[in-house]
Specification:
The protein is of the alpha/beta class and about 375 residues long. It is about 35% helix and about 20% strand. The strands form four sheets. The chain has a seven-stranded mixed beta sheet, with helices on both faces. Helix 7 (about 220-230) links the parallel strand 9 and strand 10. Helix 1 runs parallel beside helix 9 (about 300-315). The N and C termini lie far apart (about 55 Å). Bound molecules: 6-O-phosphono-beta-D-fructofuranose.
């Protein structure tokens, strides 16, 4: 399809917030204005804002709007988890129904005079982007998630900040673990992959790391703690990914989240109870939760977000519709959006990082 001349682009942030979104928005706005003279509008609250009942909620994004946002966490545009134009919850006559409003999304973008949409999001947002593109929406993707579970990019922004937060928490838990001779269990985010747990576990000098990719055996986990006690190290740090599970077990859920999907959580408390039940050590659990998504982005995430935002604008100028910017090694490249959603990027269970951890004596409970 011939690309028409670009005059106005829109930016939207979808899915969970994450540190680094504002640097992307800022870079898109500045590059679009300064290098190409395009207009930029921001869509508020992801597809919820585009499909707002009283019309699309958009705001002009000028240089003034993005001033000072580089170090700010979250997104100035607002976001909405699991809002999908192909399956929107609509309440009609007191009854909630799931309705396909994708055609309306197209009409609204056309009415707003948007030539190209920059969609910043994770796995869910990239699935929606691919389907919208199939309907004729001109768009490019920018990958974000603290979980680092998107294929086709070595890293997503947000991950480094979450890793830093989790590592600092492990450092702090060490002092109480050591003073009280306790086992401190810390549950971290990551959905169904163990990147945050694995990397924070190694960086924070933990003794046990439990990740979804390597189901654990509670006896082996407790043996490791007992061995440490016998050797004179009368405390242990256990890092548990929220999606971790026992051998032949199931992930642990705490309830139903927005959009009806199950919310992971509670495995940290379960592991602490399992260890305490053996009587080997007093045990406490800490759930880091949304602290990992908050706060100022690290320098690395500011830089990656900025590079992605700038590259997304250049990608539009080259006519690279339906593609996503990505990091390969230390280079910014672009890939078809389909490649990013061809399955999740899990931790290789015998990969270099897991082997390095095992070499340090860290147990995976298997
Ligand atoms: O995908 C990011 C993430 O923070 C996951 O690590 C976590 O499982 C989920 O989002 C939590 O989502 P919510 O903010 O909707 O509870």
């Amino acid at each position: 399809m011939m690309q028409k001349r670009v005059r106005r682009i829109a930016v939207s942030t979808g899915g969970g917030d994450c540190p680094g979104l504002n640097p992307v928005i800022r870079a898109v706005v500045k590059t679009a204005i300064l290098e190409y003279g395009w207009e930029v509008v921001g869509i508020e609250d992801g597809f919820d804002g585009l499909l707002g009942y009283e019309g699309a909620r958009v705001l002009p994004l000028t240089m003034a709007e993005v001033r000072g946002i580089l170090p700010r966490g979250g997104t100035i545009l607002g976001t909405c988890s699991r809002s999908n134009p192909f399956a929107m919850n609509v309440t009609i006559g007191g009854k909630t129904q799931v309705v396909d409003r994708s055609q309306e999304a197209l009409d609204r973008l056309a009415r707003l005079g948007v030539d190209v949409l920059v969609t910043i999001g994770g796995d869910g947002s990239m699935h929606i982007a691919k389907d919208l593109q199939a309907l004729g929406v001109q768009l490019v993707g920018v990958p974000k998630t603290i979980d680092n579970d998107l294929q086709a990019t070595d890293l997503t922004f947000g991950f480094d900040t979450a890793l830093q937060t989790a590592t600092e928490a492990i450092d702090k838990l060490h002092t109480t673990a050591e003073s009280h001779h306790r086992v401190m269990v810390v549950e971290v985010m990551g959905r169904t992959v163990g990147w945050i747990a694995l990397e924070a576990g190694i960086a924070g000098g933990s003794d046990v790391i439990l990740i979804p990719e390597i189901p654990y055996d509670v006896d082996i986990l407790c043996q490791k703690i007992a061995e440490r006690n016998r050797s004179g190290s009368r405390f242990s740090i256990v890092v548990v990914a929220e999606g971790a599970m026992e051998v032949a077990g199931q992930p642990h859920y705490v309830g139903v989240g927005s959009g009806g999907s199950l919310r992971l959580g509670g495995i940290g408390e379960q592991v602490a109870e399992q260890i305490a039940a053996t009587g080997i050590s007093a045990t406490r659990a800490t759930i880091l939760g949304h602290l990992q998504r908050g706060g100022a982005p690290t320098a690395f995430d500011r830089l990656l977000g900025t590079r992605f935002g700038t590259a997304a604008v250049h990608l539009i100028a080259r006519g690279g519709m339906g593609r996503m910017v990505a990091l390969r090694g230390n280079e910014i490249v672009d890939v078809p959006i389909e490649d990013a959603i061809a399955g999740l990027k899990s931790v290789p269970s015998d990969g270099e990082l897991v082997q390095a951890a095992r070499g340090l004596g860290i147990s995976f409970g298997n």
